[in-house]
Specification:
505 residues; Dipeptide-binding Protein, domain 1; 3 domains
Length: 505
């Protein structure tokens, strides 16, 4: 797993870091939250960074805030706990056959809100419907390993795969795969909406067929609100929230003064994608060599310093080097060249293109708004200037040559990373060859290794230069001192019911 991030509060001697002041100011504001009185008398107040109505999305492509709500109010067969570990949910136990292709779950004796029992046929129908609806999405591509779903008995369901997938349980724990029946769900919490406020109350156990418990043993009510980054930070710093979730490098805000308190900022060792997707294949970007030149010019180690995060892992690859369960690592690109040597080669390509076309190379980049984006774009502008390329920021992704992407992986496999660049999903250059290799890996022929096929697929994507990797995504939260139920994890999953002290089953 990726190493744990730690804030770096001092710069090496002789190496000024302009971003240190920015991060330090933000950390100051973060500390103010532990001094406030985010009272629990009307429920535990929690904020998530996002548009105010984003937590109420009800589709198959959910914002982080909507995922929090879905996770609390609609359970799947399994779930991820606060530590990011797979735990039972509607499925109370399971076995995996020796060949790794069959997962057999025994469902809990629960009832739907209308009093009807939860059955294996209910779970089967719900899963198959969701799989159909997810076609054409990256999650739908992830689910292609599922070969069949069948109800073995009233409470036993089997999911068969095309081949072994050690990460399957984690994939099955995604909020989008919650089990529903006639629009109803069985979950640890229930949702009430008051304007932009989501009120999440513990589900009375007797309403789902479980023994009644004393009210004091049910856990807290949570009052969840989505706010833009600056307002969310203000809410926390003023003591109006016990936790702030889903911070990214783009949303880490500027702040004023105040005492710096330890233990408030929490950083996930997130696994995923953080870089720039090539979205244009015309002009300067029509040539693969030019797209590679842009990537070669970026000093990723310097970017890490600018983030002021110890342990952040820069990378030049799509699939992280050393990913658990992955095949032999191909290593970082251009490992034998210094940054100056890389820039010399990149500059030669830029000059050659200028001479052939008589044009000045300009790159249009889209990135989310936020102070972190400003810091990042300044650094990237300086990097590209070293090879004679001007970087311009555009307001909308549709007008960009490069689009900043920042995604946390759903499960630890090369397949997840490669599926993000499937030709069905991309507007810019892609690799049909890579897609075919990933498809072959679902049912490898005798003598073919899955890891080998996936490594070849990554090589095909790199050859097309469809993506400029920068490193691992950054995910941060603010947590009030004494709040239980929060743990850093590689998936940045922080269940609301865990924060509320709700015992799911």
């Amino acid at each position: 797993m990726p190493p744990k991030f730690t804030p770096v509060r001092s710069a090496p001697a002789g190496r000024p870091r302009p971003a240190v002041r920015w991060l330090a100011a933000a950390l100051v504001a973060m500390a103010l939250g532990s001094c406030g009185a985010a009272g629990d008398e009307d429920g535990l107040p929690v904020v998530v960074i996002g548009a105010p109505d984003s937590i109420f999305e009800d589709g198959l492509r959910l914002s982080p805030g909507a995922q929090l709500v879905r996770d609390a109010t609609a359970s799947g067969i399994v779930a991820l706990n606060a530590e990011g570990e797979v735990v039972p949910a509607l499925g109370e136990s399971w076995i995996v056959t020796e060949d790794g292709r069959s997962y057999i779950f025994r469902l809990r004796q629960l009832t739907w809100p209308d009093g009807e029992p939860l059955t294996a046929e209910d779970a089967r129908t719900s899963l198959l419907a969701t799989i159909r609806q997810l076609r054409g999405t990256s999650l739908g591509l992830d689910l292609r390993k599922i070969d069949d779903v069948r109800a073995m008995t009233a409470r036993v369901i089997e999911i068969r795969l095309t081949g072994p997938m050690p990460e399957f349980l984690q994939l099955l724990a995604q909020p989008e795969l919650a089990i529903t029946h006639d629009g109803e769900s069985i979950a640890p919490m229930q949702l009430e909406r008051e304007g932009d406020l989501a009120i999440l109350r513990p589900t009375p156990p007797e309403s789902v067929g479980l023994p009644e418990r004393e009210p004091d043993a049910l856990g807290k009510t949570v009052r969840l609100r989505a706010l833009p980054g600056v307002q969310a930070n203000e809410a926390f710093s003023q003591g109006k929230a016990a936790a702030l979730l889903d911070g990214t490098v783009f949303t880490l805000p500027l702040a004023d003064t105040g005492p710096l308190s330890r233990g408030t900022i929490r950083l996930d060792p997130a696994l995923g994608l953080f870089g720039m997707l090539v979205s244009n294949e015309q002009g300067f970007f029509a040539e693969v060599e030019n797209r590679e030149a842009i990537s070669m010019a970026i000093d990723r180690a310097a970017l890490a310093e600018g983030f002021s995060l110890g342990g952040w892992q820069p990378s030049t690859r799509i699939v992280p080097v050393g990913l658990p369960g992955n095949g032999p690592s191909l290593g970082e690109r251009w490992a034998g060249l210094s940054i100056d040597q890389r820039r010399d080669r990149a500059r030669e390509r830029v000059v050659g293109w200028q001479r052939r076309t008589g044009q000045a190379p300009r790159v249009r980049l889209w990135a989310p708004e936020g102070p972190g984006s400003d810091v990042l774009l300044r650094a990237l502008s300086l990097d590209l200037a070293t090879i004679g390329v001007e970087l311009r920021r555009v307001q909308f992704p549709q007008g960009a040559d490069l689009v900043m992407i920042d995604r946390v992986a759903r499960y630890p496999s090369a397949r997840w990373f490669l599926n993000q660049f499937n030709c069905e999903l991309l507007r810019g250059p892609c690799s049909p060859e890579a897609d075919e290799l990933v498809t072959q890996s679902l049912r490898p022929e005798p003598g073919e290794g899955t890891s080998t096929l996936l490594a070849e697929a990554e090589g095909a994507l790199i050859a097309r230069e469809v993506y400029i990797s920068l490193g691992a995504p950054v995910r941060w939260s603010l947590v009030r001192s004494g709040l239980e139920g929060f743990s850093e994890n590689s998936w940045s999953r922080h269940p609301i019911y865990a924060l509320a002290g709700v015992e799911a089953w």
